[in-house]
Amino acid sequence: MDRIDPKRRSENMRRIRGRDTGPEMIVRRAMHARGLRFRLHRRDLPGTPDVVLPGRRLVVFVHGCFWHRHPGCRGCTTPGTRPEFWKNKFDANVARDRKATEALIQAGWRVETIWECEARDANTLSRRLDAMFDQA
C-alpha cells in the first residue's frame, strides 16, 4: 500500500525529469574536471544520449537504477501498487535502452552506461571514468 495519497504521488512523479538529473550533473562535472569536453542530449543519435564525445565516438548514458532496472542494485525496487503497470513500464524502458544501444553500436559508437548508484559514489565513479577513458 502506498503511504502517499494518489494526488500527491502523481505530483511527485510529474516532477521527475529525464535530463539534467542529479546523477547526470555529477557525471558531467567529473568529466569536465578531467578536461573532457562533450555535447549533451544529441537528438540526432538513437536514445538521445546524456553525454556525447564525438571525437572519441563515445556516448554515455546516465541511468537511474529505479527507472532502468539496474540488476542487483538496491535502488531497483518495484512499487507495490499497480504491479502490472510498473512491470510493463520497466520492460519498455529496458527494451528501449537495448534498442538504442544496439543502434549506436551499429553506427560505430562506443556506448557506456553509468548507473545512478555509481555516480553517487565518488570512488566508483572515478574508477568507471578511468576505465572508460583508458579504452579510448
TrEMBL record:
Pfam families given in the database record: Vsr
Keyword Hydrolase carried by entry: yes
Entry's Gene Ontology BP terms: mismatch repair
Enzyme Commission identifier(s): 3.1.-.-
Enzyme class, spelled out: hydrolase
Annotated signal sequence range: none
Annotated keywords: DNA damage, DNA repair, Endonuclease, Hydrolase, Nuclease
GO molecular function: endonuclease activity; hydrolase activity
Known role: May nick specific sequences that contain T:G mispairs resulting from m5C-deamination.
Family the entry assigns: Belongs to the vsr family.
Record-given protein name: Very short patch repair endonuclease
Species in which this protein is naturally found: Sphingomonas endophytica
